[in-house]
Amino acid sequence: MFTGIVEAVGIVKHITPRGSGITFTVESAISSELKPDQSVSHNGVCLTVEEVAGNIHTVTAIEETLKKTNLGALKEKDIVNLERCMLMNGRLDGHIVQGHVDSTARCISITEKNGSHEYIFSFDKKFAPLVIEKGSACVNGISLTVFDVGEDTFKVAIIPYTYEHTNIRLVKEGDSVNIEFDVIGKYILRHQQLSEK
């Protein structure tokens, strides 16, 4: 379980095909504090730490994960957002995030707003019931409030701190990002669907 508050960014040092999956070697300021079998969010994707050596750790994304996320498009030297799982005795500063990415979305617009930035993302219409005005979405592992929600688009505003301390600043128009929709909304929608049968 995560909160969508990015702790650090990591640099992808090596990418190694592993059967139908990919193993990533990542260097970061928090890698030395990790341990094998620990869950860490990488661009919003919950992955299990396999090895730790100094300030470097390795994780593997399996085929199913690669199909639903943008991890398969990562290249060496790319920057990823990292977050360790939340502590039960801490504050929930973002929102409840599982690290189970639902889909990717495409950045279709970026506007600089005198220090802050507004991004518009387009997503698959089948997820429209899960996106509400002033609701939460996790974009590349960042907990964000969505607004100006359309049929298959939403907008987010990025404050300077988030812009400077995550990889959102590297997202360009046309780029793909990982999206996890609000888990509470998923349960409500499922209940409603079953009730209508």
TrEMBL record:
It comes from the Bacteria. Pathway: Cofactor biosynthesis; riboflavin biosynthesis; riboflavin from 2-hydroxy-3-oxobutyl phosphate and 5-amino-6-(D-ribitylamino)uracil: step 2/2. Keywords: Repeat, Riboflavin biosynthesis, Transferase. Lumazine-binding repeats lie at residues 1-95, 96-192. The keyword Glycoprotein does not apply. This is Riboflavin synthase. It is an enzyme of class 2 (transferase). Residues 1-95, 96-192 form the Lumazine-binding domain.
